[in-house]
Amino acid sequence: MHPPTNLAAELRLPTNWLDYTILGIYFVVVLGIGFAARRSVKTSLDFFLSGRSLPAWVTGLAFIAANLGATEILGMAANSAQYGVYTTHWYWIGAIPAMVFLGLVMMPFYYGSKVRSVPEFLLLRFDKAAHLLSSGLFACAAILIAGVNLYALAIVVEALLGWPQWVAIVVAGFFVLAYITLGGLSSAIYNEVLQFFVILAALIPITVLGLKSVGGWDGLSDSLTESRGADFMTSWGGTGIGSDNPLGANWLTIVLGLGFVLSFGYWTTNFAEVQRALSAKNLSAAQRTPLIAAFPKIFIVFLVMIPGLVAAVLVPKIGTAGSDLQYNDAIPYLMEQLLPNGVLGIAVTGLLAAFMAGMAANVSSFNTVFTTDIWAKYVVRGREDEYYVRFGRLITAIGVLASIGTAFLASSFSNIMSYLQTLFSFFNVPMFVVFIIGMFWKRASMKSGFWGLIAGTTAAMVNYFWIYKQGIIDIPSDQGANFVSAIAGFVAGAVVMVAVSLFTAPKPVEELQGLVYGTTSPGMAEPPAPGDEAWYRKPALLGWGAVVLAAACYIPFSF
């Protein structure tokens, strides 16, 4: 899909002193949280993982807020304006099952092994080569994704408030740098909890007033069915193999490419998300973190999908040559048309909060991986704890500056969401296949992790840049190409890992305790904390409840 990223210049909002006051109060609170969190930072564990002391409800809300960035707000609304109810796939099949899998299956390995990062787990399971490569790949991906959020914020602020892009990028980068440098991960997490509620306060009025403007859900459905066809208001219509649909993907590539490979690759290995769970106070809280986040994730789709659908009704030619508005203009257009002053200030603040949350999640995970997995293990080893805290603050500043640079790189891509999905297929999918085989196959050798990462990343890039971009095989859209790249990366990584394992020595069994399914470690066998016996504190019940609820939500939109 190819909707331009830049917003229409005429979408200038009628903001006044009330809106700017709300925005100013938000920034003051953000910095205040950073100063308050600074008092709790005494060790590197405090700075990078909040001392593993946070309750599940805090880490759960931070987990979902960290994902509420550029793709969620602008990208998914644009996706809905262009493709309709197909957007539900990115939530009910492309998120919930993987979040449940992370909580029930993978968090006991992550938390029980006491690792500080996702790449560090590969050091324990495989060898230094796999660890260093995965650390480097993740550090690059984190900076690129942080830059996407910064660029998305800049184009929104330029279009809505009239600020130059470079001013918006520098101002937002400064505030993220300030509160992460002051309070470390705790500051980022508590700000993400605040940002979660600010984002909801922004999206709910847009959704409610937007529905009202088109005659409710029935009026919305009737209008779009008449103008775009019946499949536009269904999630699976037109996805049969050999059938044509705007998404350029059939049910098989949706289920395997998005629902399995891309989804599981992102949610289970992306340290920007997993880091929130690792900061929880015990294993039960760590497991419940992604499961608590799964419940609002089920319903957030309506807050980004409905505005996109409403925009498609109010501006029938949106995204075409006959309109000045592009798909990415959906939410800003509704803000301009529907929101009064005051509520408008909350909406603008919510958009800024969304982009800052996405950027902060990636910057905080970047400083952890670079400091603990690269600097402390391979460059400067054995220094006092205070040194690594100081270095963590320094590398945070460097990460923010690098993100500003990659923000301008993101401007060369026509669509934010397609760009991010491309990055996920390159970086997250190969890491996922290495993790999943390493966790469930004892015979996977120490050398197989490194070569699996190489093969998976290479295959995904070859598919995208050569097979798709050079037209070797006709794939209808960027999103369809991303799904195929993800499948290619997964298959190539898995095949190479198996082949290498058959010809190289496995890791000794005694070194696999707590790292492979069927083995245990002391951290994985911890007794439940007082009160954890309650049903709503049991990860298995929460996980299956989220899956059932997501499946039930699919039914009204299926066909």
Automatic annotation (TrEMBL):
Transmembrane regions listed in the UniProt entry: 20-37, 57-78, 90-111, 132-157, 163-182, 194-214, 249-269, 290-315, 343-370, 391-413, 419-441, 448-468, 480-503, 540-557
Locations listed in the record: Membrane
Topological relation to the membrane, as annotated: Multi-pass membrane protein
Domain of life assignment: Bacteria
InterPro entries: Na/Glc_symporter_sf, Na/solute_symporter
Pfam families for this protein: SSF (PF00474)
Keywords: Membrane, Transmembrane, Transmembrane helix
Family: Belongs to the sodium:solute symporter (SSF) (TC 2.A.21) family.
Protein name: Sodium:solute symporter
Upper lineage: Bacteria, Bacillati, Actinomycetota, Actinomycetes, Kitasatosporales
